[in-house]
Amino acid sequence: MLLLALDTATPAVTVALHDGDDVIASSSQVDARRHGELLLPAIDRVLAEAGLKVDALTGIVVGIGPGPYTGLRVGLMTADAFGLALGVPVHGVCTLDGLAYAADLEGPFVVATDARRKEVYWARYADSRTRLTDPAVDRPADIAGRVAGLPAVGAGALLYPETFPRAHEPEYVTAAALARLAAERLAAGVELPAPRPLYLRRPDAQVPKNYKVVTPK
Q1: What does the mean pLDDT of the chain come to?
Q2: Is the pLDDT of residue 22 over 70?
Q3: Pairing mode, if any, of strands 109-116 and 152-153?
Q4: Among residues 103, 100, 101, 120, which one has the least CA distance to residue 112?
Q5: Beta strands 59-63 and 3-7, pairing class
Q6: Is residue 165 within 8 Å of 137, Cβ to Cβ?
Q7: Boundaries of each Gcp-like domain copy (predicted)?
Q8: What are 76-124's pLDDT values in tens digits?
Q9: Measured between alpha carbons, how far is 153 from 138 in angstroms, rounded to an integer?
Q10: CA 74 from chain center: how many Å?
């Protein structure tokens, strides 16, 4: 097994290689505006660090969000392109699940990432491997009663201490955590989600209301 894992659902552009036993190379950079510029060089870098060629890959793991439209699609389209070019499977993993796995907490807790517009993408977890709720997007104040008293991880939790007073790192997901979680689940025979995005809301760009269709004469 040689899995290439990547995620662009948060400001972190993160890539890792997993050889079936553990992560052998990884790279993470935080830059919310340069996902498209940073991702392919990061893939080249981790392959070079491991001394491997791209045709050695046996599978791709990609974070499916939830996340903002622009950043999230960079990782998903890149994963699809590699999968098609190499003829290898592409597996999705919820980005929040990767953060929960990296947090390695016992007992119930919350993962929350920044959804902008003064909202968070979030879910509750029983432990680092077990999600209790579907990913959702809400204003922190609207979910305060549902997360009260629980530890929380992620940039969204750190942004709103009034709702998440027990928030702490990790702030962003790492591909290393995604790779370890995916490898663990694949080894156990668990079917991973399709590599399709969890946007949870419509993109900001909209067709103007007074848009006029131009037809040829």
Answers
A1: 94
A2: yes
A3: parallel
A4: 120
A5: parallel
A6: no
A7: 32-145
A8: 999 999 999 999 999 999 999 999 999 999 889 999 999 999 999 999 9
A9: 16
A10: 12
Question: Per this entry, what is the length of the chain?
Answer: 217
The set of residues, in sequence order, having a beta carbon less than 8 Å from that of 138 and lying 6+ positions away, is 119, 120, 122
HSE on the CB side for 92, CA within 13 Å? 17
Spatial distance between the Cα atoms of 166 and 153, rounded to a whole number of angstroms: 8
6-24: b (≥16 Cβ within 10 Å) or e: bbbbbbbbbbbbbbeeebb
First-last CA distance in the chain: 59
Q: Which residue has the tokens 């131009």?
A: 214
Whether the pTM exceeds 0.85: the reply is yes
**Residue 156: Cβ within 10 Å count:** 28
pLDDT band for 175, please (50, 70, 90 cuts): very high
Q: Are strands 59-63 and 90-93 parallel, antiparallel or unpaired?
A: parallel
What is the token pair recorded at 152?
């929380």
Tokens of 143: 């979910």
Is 90 exceeded by the pLDDT of residue 202? no
Q: CB under 8 Å to 41, separation ≥6 — which residues?
A: none
Owner of token pair 């201490």:
161
Distance set, CA 2 to CA 24, 44, 59, 134 (Å): 10, 15, 7, 29
Beta bridge partners, 214, equal: none
CB 98 within 8 A of CB 173: yes
Tokens of 75: 């990782």
Asked if pLDDT for residue 145 goes beyond 90, the answer is yes
